[in-house]
Amino acid sequence: MAASRDGSTPRFPMRLGSSTRSPEARRGRGATANPTSRYETAKRENFQDGDWETDAIAPLRTQVTLERAGRMIARNSSPDIPFDRSVNPYRGCEHGCIYCYARPTHAWLGLSPGLDFESRIFAKPDAAQLLKREIAAPGYQPETIALGTATDPYQPVEREHGITRAVLEVLRAARHPVAVTTKSDLVLRDLDILAEMAAENLVLVAISLPTLDPRLARLLDPRAPRPEKRLAAMRRLSEAGVPVMVNVSPIIPGLTDHEIEAILAKARENGASRIGHALLRLPGEVADLVADWFAEHYPECQARAFALLAQARGGRENDPRFGHRFRGEGPYAELIGQRVRIAGGRLGFAFGRMALNTAAFRKPGAQLALF
């Protein structure tokens, strides 16, 4: 059982047992453990007796695997999501956000949603070519593509691979609308493309900012840029004419919920004009990973956080029902929604996604039909 920072005993034990890596080896990572994929028939458990083995204390390096995808546009029909198609250049995310609802997808690859998710990254080098082919297909009708809905398109490996920029170049050439979601100021690298698209109402950039506390941010999403760098990115984008949304997400009961008004005020000061927000979700293995994270870093907050989540999720840790999974229900969820609406209205924010231009779309290769 982990001890809190003041030496007291936490109310809850760690659910996942010992990590497969020492604390030193996983420094800079979000997950505290690397649990076996739920699809594996055998469960592995690390037993550490005495000193750590050499491979358990070695720094955990990021491994990037090139993946040949069959398609790039993923479709969805969820009434909770303001888009029906998305593109993700990467699987897994090096930012290591402990709360990431995409973590369970690594189990489909036979990997752990824990440390594997943030250190075993799959890159799609042919993403731009596949996307160009798909939007050029007969019968394709343009609607806003959401870029980076599962994993961050501007995570650190993008500096080397440049897949996200290549995707944006295809969308710019086709005048196809896109909504980008990221935590990274690396988005400023592509300001030339984004500003050009913004001039035709073809782009919105949403920057996620769950906390203003730099220490907490380093624990929640350890390899994402600091809060002040995200705010600076909002300002640069806005000054270049790119519309910016602040995603106050996730809102974590008893840990970040007190910051809602302060986050919105700072984001507005730095040029954000729209708001998105979501209550913490705990699908699949995320529930145990987050519980483990609390037990290691904030044991004194764990009971309250999980009690309030259960209140907002119909008595469960997670409610997957359409219409409930992002906002929740009951007094606590209603209070959060009310605070966002009141603060946002006072600060002059617009709410939700903006309508982007679909009329300017030019199908790739269409001009060749003239010859």
Break the fold down into its secondary structure elements and pairings.
Layout lengths: L53 H4 L5 E4 L7 E2 L9 E3 L2 E2 L23 H5 E4 L3 H9 L9 E3 L10 H4 L1 H12 L3 E5 L8 H8 L4 E6 L5 H7 L6 H13 L4 E8 L8 H10 L4 E6 L6 H12 L1 H14 L17 H18 L2 E2 L20
Parallel strand pairs: 1-5, 3-6, 6-7, 7-8, 8-9, 9-10, 10-11
Antiparallel strand pairs: 2-3, 4-5
List descriptors:
single chain; 371 residues; alpha/beta; eight-stranded mixed β-sheet; 12 helices; 12% strand; globular
Describe it for me?
The protein is an alpha/beta fold. It has one domain: Aldolase class I (TIM Barrel), CATH 3.20.20.70. Helix content is 31%, strand content 12%. The protein is built from 12 helices and 11 strands. It has helices at 54-57, 115-119, 127-135, 158-161, 163-174, 191-198, 214-220, 227-239, 260-269, 286-297, 299-312, 330-347; strands at 63-66, 74-75, 85-87, 90-91, 120-123, 145-147, 178-182, 203-208, 244-251, 274-279, 350-351. The strands form 2 sheets. An 8-stranded mixed beta sheet has the order 2-3-6-7-8-9-10-11. Strands 1-5-4 form a 3-stranded mixed beta sheet. Helix 9 (260-269) links the parallel strand 9 and strand 10. Helix 9 (260-269) runs parallel beside helix 12. The longest helix has 18 residues, at 330-347. The chain is globular and about 60 Å long.
Strand content: 5-15%
What Rg is obtained from the alpha carbons, in whole angstroms?
21 Å
Task: Give the helix/strand class.
Answer: alpha/beta
How much helicity do the residues have?
25-40%
Give the averaged pLDDT, no decimals: 88
Tally of separate domains: 1
Distance between the termini: 73 Å
Can you tell me the CATH class? Answer: Alpha Beta
Order of helices and strands: HEEEEHEHEHHEHEHHEHEHHHE
What CATH calls the topology is: TIM Barrel
Low-confidence stretches: 1-11
How would a crystallographer describe the biggest sheet? 8 strands, mixed
Number of strands: 11
**For this entry, what is the oligomeric state of its chains?**
single chain
CATH homology-level superfamily: Aldolase class I
The strand order across the widest sheet is 2-3-6-7-8-9-10-11
Morphology call: globular
Indicate the CATH architecture: Alpha-Beta Barrel
Number of helices: 12
